From TrEMBL:
Domain S-Me-THD N-terminal: 9-152
Listed name of the protein: DUF917 family protein
Entries under Gene3D superfamilies matching the protein: CV3147-like, CV3147-like domain
Source organism (scientific name): Bradyrhizobium erythrophlei
InterPro entries: S-Me-THD-like_C, S-Me-THD_C_sf, S-Me-THD_N, S-Me-THD_N_sf
Residues annotated as domain S-Me-THD-like C-terminal: 173-324
SUPFAM superfamilies: CV3147-like (SSF160991)
Amino acid sequence: MARMLTVDDVEAGLVGGLLLSAGGSGRNAVDKNRGLGRMALDNGGVRLVALDELAPDATIITATAVGAPGFANWQIKPRDSINAARRLIEKLDKPPVGVICGHVPGFNAWLVAAALGLDYIDAASNGRGHPTVKMGGMGLASRLDLSITQVASSGSKAENSEFAIEVEGDIVRTSNVMRQAAVINGGLIYAARGPLTAGFIGENGAPGAITFQLDLGRAMLAASGADRVRATVEFLGGELLVDGEVTANSVTYGGGFDLGQMTVRGKNGEAVLGVYNEFMTADFAGKRVATFPDMIGTLDPLTGEVVSISESKPGSRVAVIIAHRSKFPVGKGALDPAVFPEVEKAMGVDMRSYL
């Protein structure tokens, strides 16, 4: 049943969403995301609507951001997300009824919904953080016969800083253009894409991703410190892989991505986490134990706060948790074989054989 989101939902969505960003965001993103959520509530409010409440042919757009979340030197503003969505809608033959996020936390999509009078749909392209538009493409990377429109926006004419790009075509080539737009914009840019139908998203996206995000956040907020780590593992049906010291973090920004490895050593052994914007692989004692789109995340074991990759400095202590992809909503794009080769090449690891 449709309902208006509240301030309590902002807090739950913040905590659950930061964890599900899979290392892309942490304490450094709390104020920004909380601000977006509250701004949306203060400017029209946000109505959360389930996919099955919509007609299968209802038009929906996606509000997202493209680029590297942690190590790049980017400057983006909330208005950019609204402007990107508005530019996209102007190009569509049929007005959208709602908006989904690319992946959670997704508060920029809250803002788009509030500003443009759209419903916020209880779904996402994917239920956890992913590094490429194609991985959030809901299988479109294998459908080069289908065309999609992608729009990115930044700055304003008044500030002599306006930068916008609109591109149409298959999701593979248009996504490459969007990545370059992010690089030009300092590493990250707000974007919108579409149109998609409710029926397509129901079959290929991650229905229920927002409810899952909120429920996870509530479970996490009900505990603190080490208890929050346990509560998170229990809710996800996952495991605490290691609680220990970050002994190495080689992740650096380049070419639109944060790339490298992070090593955590605890009493039970050593975990090596492969990073491509988000945590993509986890090896423990030389054995692969989690591979995207499995959930891999880090928490401060003392406070229970979500810790991002960029915040995990050598010498700091983190708790690494993992959960199988079957435990949360996952879009088909996250399992599309066509989206893995570029990531495997960049990281120098095998991923497809672990799907």
